[in-house]
Amino acid sequence: MGNEKEIAVVTGAGRGIGLATTKRLLEDGFHVVMVDLNPEPLGANAAELKMASNSVEHHALSVADRPAVAGLIGSLPRLDVLVNNAAIFWDGKFDAVTEDDFRKMYEINVIGAFVMAQEAAKVMKRGARIVNIASRAYLAGYAHAPYITSKAGAIGLTRSMAIDLAPRGIFVNAIAPGLIETEMFRSLTPERQQELIAKQPTKEVGQPEDIANGIAFFASPRTRNVTGQVLTLDGGRSMGISIY
Ligand SMILES: NC(=O)c1ccc[n+]([C@@H]2O[C@H](COP(=O)([O-])OP(=O)(O)OC[C@H]3O[C@@H](n4cnc5c(N)ncnc54)[C@H](O)[C@@H]3O)[C@@H](O)[C@H]2O)c1
Q: Where does ligand 1 bind, in terms of residues with CB under 6 Å?
């Protein structure tokens, strides 16, 4: 790995939005470090990307595993961008949600993002960027209490880090995707998928590349003087579902 290119770490890069982001950041000239808990499809997708580029590497680890995260970040020659994208999700009616559900989701979606960001900030220099992936769901949604809470947490983390890291010249922003066609979305029942699509002003599901493009804006070295912001990419749903 040469250190002439800017280096971006993307978590949850094995598939979905993280994979699309990896591809977009490679196009933008970054060396991309793909991180995912699940070795497959991470390995297979990384192998395919490596056939066309020597600017990509992959590491199977959990974002909540502090020693593994510290080991990886400490091994990089530089770190310019962190995309905190890894998360878990499931549907569950409020009455049926358990404390364990909350703890599991908090552990990955909030603590994991915090661990990644804290280790990253130790080595980041002025001008570095952190992009946290939240969700439009932080505003409201049925049957998602642990997920919505964790994504509201991602926004809180973004805003607090933006303040704390601003004096060091590190910019921290968030993306709030709406419905995006990935395995996460496909894990819902077909009925639930249709119910959610019906609430979209566009009546469409977004694509992972739509989110990757927004992430690329915050990740770009040309995007300066913006921090603590949330960019919502949701086909207009956040304008207010009651009028549709
Ligand atoms: N798909 C949507 O509709 C949607 C909507 C709003 C927000 N989001 C957010 O976008 C991000 C990406 O979602 P996606 O749809 O691509 O999901 P996905 O489930 O397809 O991919 C998530 C990836 O994260 C990985 N991961 C899970 N736990 C991990 C851990 N502990 N350490 C490292 N990697 C881990 C998974 O193995 C998986 O490869 C998530 O933060 C999600 O909450 C997605």
A: 11-12, 14-18, 35-38, 62-64, 85-89, 108, 112, 133, 135, 177, 179-180, 182-185
Domain boundary assignment for the chain: 7-233
pLDDT one-digit tens code per residue, 87-120: 999 888 999 999 999 999 999 999 999 999 999 9
Say whether 147 is catalytic.
yes
HEC states along 83-148? EECCCCCCCECHHHCCHHHHHHHHHHHHHHHHHHHHHHHHHCCCCCEEEEECCHHHCCCCCEHHHH
Looking at every residue in the chain, the average pLDDT score rounds to: 95
pTM, whole model, 2 decimals? 0.97
Q: How many CB atoms lie within 10 A of CB 57?
A: 17
CATH superfamily of 7-233: NAD(P)-binding Rossmann-like Domain (3.40.50.720)
